[in-house]
Specification:
Blueprint (H helix, E strand, L loop, with lengths): L1 E3 L5 H13 L4 E3 L7 H7 L7 E3 L7 E2 L1 H12 L10 H30 L7 H27 L12 H16 L10 H10 L3 H4 L8
Parallel strand pairs: 1-2
Antiparallel strand pairs: 1-3, 3-4
Helix pairs in contact: 1-3, 1-6, 4-5, 4-6, 5-7, 6-7
Bound molecules: glutathione.
């Protein structure tokens, strides 16, 4: 399967990390929304990344949620990153939704600041977006602190889930695109989780360092 998009996108990066953690064979076509829009639109009518091209499937899969669902199905129940059912599943989904909500708002804030001329930017709207980013990351930080206090290595217990992947990817995207919101001191418990996960090959291979 081929992932379309660059790891700079938090949605693409969480797909790439998930593929690496589950060990499924994959390639990447690193098309950028800034320079390759026509090629991306030809694959996804929404003109967004990520998309997943799967041999034998009629259509590309679009949206990271859909792609992660496919990855978990292919990985099987032992390796799936989102638990199949029950409280465990809801706990993970809640954290993933917080992380992706923060990431979506961070992307909007980034587009406002980088794609709109300064005189057309609306400060109250930017502040609102940044407040939503800080709200999501702040809640994830509390969960990370509570997990650490229980001696858990990951946000929801002893094994890594999509909650950890999406939370760390969201934090690192915000650090990269809005350092004024998430400097090294901010969100310390989530930052400690990120520092540990960054040592894993799946996170190292997709690091945002190369976009600096
Ligand atoms: N909900 C989507 C969000 C995807 C998304 O917004 N991707 C951004 C890149 S970070 C994009 O392609 N933006 C181009 C645009 O919307 O113009 C997902 O989870 O895949």
């Amino acid at each position: 399967m081929i992932v379309v998009g660059r790891d700079l996108s938090p949605f693409v990066r969480r797909v790439m990390v998930s593929l690496k953690l589950t060990g499924l064979p994959h390639e990447q076509k690193p098309l950028a929304t800034t320079t390759d829009m026509d090629k991306i639109r030809a694959i996804n009518p929404l003109a967004r990344v990520p998309c997943l091209l799967v041999e034998g499937e009629d259509q590309p899969l679009v949206d990271s949620w859909t792609i992660l669902d496919y990855i978990d199905e292919q990985a099987g129940p032992e390796k799936a990153l989102i638990p199949a059912k029950g409280r465990e599943r809801r706990a993970v989904l809640r954290l993933v939704a917080l992380a992706m909500g923060a990431a979506e708002k961070a992307v909007q804030s980034f587009y406002e600041r980088t794609r709109r001329p300064a005189e057309k930017q609306h400060k109250p709207w930017l502040d609102h977006l940044d407040g939503q980013v800080a709200g999501g990351l702040g809640e994830l930080d509390k969960v990370a602190a509570a997990a650490a206090a229980k001696g858990w290595p990951y946000l929801t217990g002893q094994r890594i889930t999509q909650a950890d992947v999406s939370a760390v990817v969201a934090l690192e995207f915000v650090r990269h695109t809005a350092p004024y919101l998430a400097g090294p001191e901010a969100f310390p418990a989530l930052g400690a989780l990120a520092a540990r996960l960054d040592e894993m090959p799946a996170f190292k291979a997709t690091s945002l360092e190369r976009f600096k």
